[in-house]
Amino acid sequence: MAMLEVNDINVYYGAIHAIKGISLTVDEGEIVTLIGANGAGKSTTLRTISGLLKPKTGAINFLGKNIAGMPAHKIVREGISQVPEGRRIFAEMSVLENLELGAFTRDDKDEIRRDMELVFGRFPRLKERIAQQAGTLSGGEQQMLAMGRALMSRPKLLLLDEPSMGLAPLLIREIFSIIVDINKTGTTVLLVEQNANMALSIANRAYVLETGRITLSGDAKELAASEDVRKAYLGG
After folding, report:
1. What's the Cα-to-Cα distance from 193 to each of 32, 156, 161, rounded to whole Å?
2. What is the DSSP letter of 94?
3. How many domains, the chain?
4. What are the φ/ψ torsions at residue 44 (nearest 5 degrees)?
5. CATH number at residue 72
6. Distance of CA 141 to the CA centre of its chain
7. Which of 10, 97, 111, 176 is the 20 to 30 A CA-CA neighbour of 212?
């Protein structure tokens, strides 16, 4: 059974029809990526899955339960966590406080402590800066913090919105290898990414979005090799 099934959702911003009948699935254990040009509807799709936007029509089933239109904080409790575009960390708070807020739906204190150690194991730089104000971290460190914060809710499905945005190539590679590691340790991943080359290199399957519609989907390696995808998104 698919972990996530998005069935024919339509999403509007006021009068603008942003998402036009999108359907997609994510199976347990997969990395699935959505690629496409700016404004294609990738982030809108993630925001709708995580409850920040409500679809006008259509269903979103997560582990067999329709979560379309459910408030975002309840969707976190169901097991979906989002790392938003632009990171959106709490700049005035410390690294530690940001991570603690990621666990706001939980009350298993010992397990929270254990997960905090796992996050520090994965992102040693955050441990070094545990008391530092999050707003003073570098872009790469803020991205690590946003990912660590999302992992603190112990999600079954992690939604990543443009994790490479604004980062240097070396850091992008580091972030992507961490995404692969997170997936290998049991978290399913749905990834929205401008850097189609990187996204397709780590994903199992991919969907190509164009102006609110899915125009192509399939095995990530096959799409990476396709002439149309190469021309449109992979720089030749």
Report:
1. 11, 20, 7
2. B
3. 1
4. -60, -40
5. 3.40.50.300
6. 17
7. 176
